[in-house]
Amino acid sequence: MIGLIQAFFAYSVSNTLDLDERFAVIGALIPSLSLILIYSGPLQYEGVLLSLTSALFFSAIVYFGFDKEKSKSTFTGYSCSLLLESLTFSYIPFFHPFTGFQGLGLFSSFDPVFNLSVISISVFLIAGKSLKS
Questions:
Q1: Are 123 and 12 in contact (CB under 8 A)?
Q2: What is the extent of the structural domain holding 75?
Q3: Among 16, 35, 58, 91, which is least packed, fewest CB within 10 Å?
Q4: What digits encode the pLDDT tens for the residues 92-121?
Q5: Burial of residue 133, with CB atoms counted within 10 A of its CB: 0-12 exposed, 13-18 middle, 19 or more buried
Q6: Shortest CA distance to 34 belongs to which of 42, 25, 22?
Q7: What sign results for the dihedral spanned by CA atoms 54, 105, 119, 46?
């Protein structure tokens, strides 16, 4: 899935939950770094960043570096990214280094209908939040 769409979805969810949107976006973009790791050569396996273990690890770094609220935002963004990836054909090792599962395979990562649906849901969440205010 396209990392910017995952980041926008994480932004809308964190905005709805009154969390720090910046750290949610950062958390959502970390799993997208797996593509850089795959094609640059140091790791030939994307599962390191597509796991709840990594989500907890990066959230703990933010917790000790900043505070609890920013850590929750980072974990929320990371979880949003993993949720969207689990709907695709991607291999998701949720509990790395243990074996994971093949994504649900409901959509392709580059399916325009899926990506537009995620964008629409994100816009709906942001609009709904602004209407309540």
A1: yes
A2: 3-126
A3: 35
A4: 776 766 666 666 777 877 888 888 999 999
A5: exposed
A6: 42
A7: positive
H or E stretch at 37: helix 33-40
Quote the tokens at residue 62. Answer: 């933010």
Tokens 């720090």 -> residue: 20
Amino acid identity at 126: I
pLDDT in tens, 82-96: 888 888 877 677 676
Residues in the chain: 133
Is residue 132, in this structure, part of any structural domain at all? no
DSSP SS3 for 32:
helix
> Are the C-beta atoms of residues 72 and 24 closer than 8 Å to each other?
no
Q: Give residue 35's Cα distance to chain centre.
A: 14
List of residues 6+ apart from 62 with CB closer than 8 A: 23, 70, 71, 74
Identity of the residue numbered 89: F
CB-CB contact of 24 with 10 (8 Å):
yes
| 63 is a domain residue | yes
Of the candidates 39, 108, 121, 37, which has an alpha carbon nearest to the alpha carbon of residue 80?
Answer: 121
How far is residue 33's CA from residue 115's CA, in Å, rounded to a whole number? Answer: 19
